[in-house]
Amino acid sequence: MSAQHAILAALVLPLVGALGIALAARISANLREAVTLATAAALAVVVWGLLPELMAGERPALRLAEIVPGIEIALRVEPLGMLFAALASGLWIINSIYSIGYMRGNREAKQTRFYIFFAIAIAAAMGIAFAGNLITLFLFYEILTLSTYPLVSHKGDANTVRSARVYLGVLLTTSIGLLLPAIVWTYYVAGTGDFVAGGILAGKIEGPAIGLLLGLFVFGVGKAAIMPMHRWLPAAMVAPTPVSALLHAVAVVKAGVFTIVKIIIYLFGVDFLFAAPSSGWLLYAAAFTIIAASVVALRQQNLKRLLAYSTIAQLSYVVMATAILKPLAEIGAATHMVAHAFGKITLFFAAGAIYVAAKKTELQQLRGIGRRMPWTMTAFTIGALSMIGVPPTGGFVSKWYILAGAFQADNYIAIGTIIASTVLNAAYFLPIVYMAWFSRESTPPQRDHGEAPFSMVLALTVTAALTIALFLFNGPVLELERQLVEGTL
């Protein structure tokens, strides 16, 4: 298969899979889930098959259609997009295994619709990852928003629908009201919206307008959850846990920070952007979001809401690292996308397993649960340690590179933010770990529950193992991102 055919297959396979899921569901649930797993595996093979060519220095591209002269739907594979696509396609397999146990164990309704829209969301994520210009990225960005709305509103009760409307409203308002004008402005001043190493805006815009355009992009990409555009993320916690994993680890928030990093590197160009005084606010906005979200997380008593605010903080690590403008920090930003994906999906998988097996959602209900669910809580502990940045987890690697870049730049705001947020992360994660393993249950359980269904435990065990593997075997990720740094800095 040629690289161009592989790029097209990465978009088409999930959509064909969605159709196959709908047809298979008419026969049996087992066949429906087999089609889901087969599609996810096929996508991973196709996407990961592009890696050798990329590592050899090739940048395969594909033009799909020309909308009007000079504006086309185009795809291109580059290191940052490859990282996002490989991450999303690989985690789709694990999330699908987990989803089978969760949806059956929790006796969820509308399971076929769930798998169909999940597949469509993955197709949109592939389009975002391989977008060759702003128009293509915006198209798939909006498809991702619309395809995840039925997933967030899955339960269908009044509270869920209300929260899902907040999710949809914030993301559509920011993208149409801020991101789209930024795209139009870019095409107007630069004559193109293509993603080019080194950027396209140098000499085309100057002064305060640079900071204003950057603001439209950053706050227009609501999926990155930079405060105050973060309210959609806690609202979306009404969704089933596999959807929360999709939102936090597989596609949605990763699409947000990926888009911001891609815009900074391939539209503005890091040298041009951070030579402009009007762009300096970005680092402070990211630092504020990290600390503020960590403080809010510290006050939460519901486990999924705590994890939601933790995600808001962790996402801004990526934005802040990009704003430091040092090679080590740029590598740390990309690596943190992977570390956060593995660690946070493990935490959400564990939260969902606890709910299915024990129907517990609040922190105080987790006392002593490690004795009854040792596999789940071991995985949770590993995920929590990665969020804090403790070795031997992937979170330590990414924070190490971000901190090293901050020291390179003598950026004491970034250094102080990383240290303070690490302390806050420990302050809200370690008490949970302690309660689970060392506290006695405050009330006897209504039933002597054990672990969640096997497929759920298998999935969270695999992602916990990946969190540790990233610490031990991070060479391929670092090499991929060195290509990005060498081509843009």
From TrEMBL:
PANTHER family: NA(+)/H(+) ANTIPORTER SUBUNIT, NA(+)_H(+) ANTIPORTER SUBUNIT A. This is Monovalent cation/H+ antiporter subunit D family protein. Residues 131-423 form the NADH:quinone oxidoreductase/Mrp antiporter transmembrane domain. The chain crosses the membrane at residues 34-52, 73-94, 114-144, 165-188, 208-226, 246-269, 281-299, 306-325, 337-358, 379-401, 413-434, 454-473. One of its GO terms (cellular component) is membrane. It is a multi-pass membrane protein. It is found in: Endomembrane system; Membrane. InterPro entries: CPA3_Na-H_Antiporter_A, ND/Mrp_TM. Its main location: membrane. It holds the Pfam family Proton_antipo_M. Keywords: Membrane, Transmembrane, Transmembrane helix.
